[in-house]
């Protein structure tokens, strides 16, 4: 997850794009996302080995994944506004990308893996968009 956070943050920087309500904190395997609107909060985008922490981890991790997916959508919308031919292959609606939920909690492994795959594909398309914008 950390490398994907770093890539999305780099793409946003190259495109001079600022996310609304969130700030990505790429920190390798310990990446986070900060909610900057209203009450500030930091969501971890990594697991916890602490038994007590595991009780609350799934929920915080889910909120972090949803926030990250929102950032993917924001950058995708930005790209679509700047190039009428550009469309992300998988539509994002709240916690769903395509037909799969990004939430880990109460989700089947197959569906969650599919959501992560769709997220990576969308980020890959934004990488291609960014490279084409820089090249021109």
UniProtKB/TrEMBL annotation:
InterPro entries associated with the record: Atg6/Beclin (IPR007243), Atg6/Beclin_C_sf (IPR038274), Atg6_BARA (IPR040455)
Domain of life of the native organism: Eukaryota
Atg6 BARA domain span: 1-131
Endpoints of the signal sequence: none
One Pfam assignment: APG6
GO terms (BP aspect): autophagy
Family recorded in the similarity comment: Belongs to the beclin family.
Annotated protein name in UniProt: Atg6 BARA domain-containing protein
Record organism: Batrachochytrium dendrobatidis (strain JAM81 / FGSC 10211)
């Amino acid at each position: 997850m950390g490398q994907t956070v770093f890539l999305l943050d780099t793409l946003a920087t190259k495109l001079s794009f600022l996310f609304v309500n969130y700030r990505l904190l790429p920190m390798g395997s310990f990446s986070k996302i900060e909610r900057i609107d209203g009450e500030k909060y930091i969501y971890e985008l990594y697991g916890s080995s602490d038994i007590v922490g595991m009780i609350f981890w799934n929920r915080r991790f889910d909120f972090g994944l949803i926030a990250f997916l929102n950032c993917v959508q924001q950058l995708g919308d930005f790209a679509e506004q700047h190039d009428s031919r550009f469309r992300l292959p998988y539509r994002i609606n709240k916690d769903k990308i395509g037909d799969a939920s990004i939430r880990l909690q109460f989700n089947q492994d197959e569906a969650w893996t599919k959501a992560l795959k769709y997220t990576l594909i969308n980020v890959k398309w934004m990488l291609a968009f960014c490279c084409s914008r820089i090249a021109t």
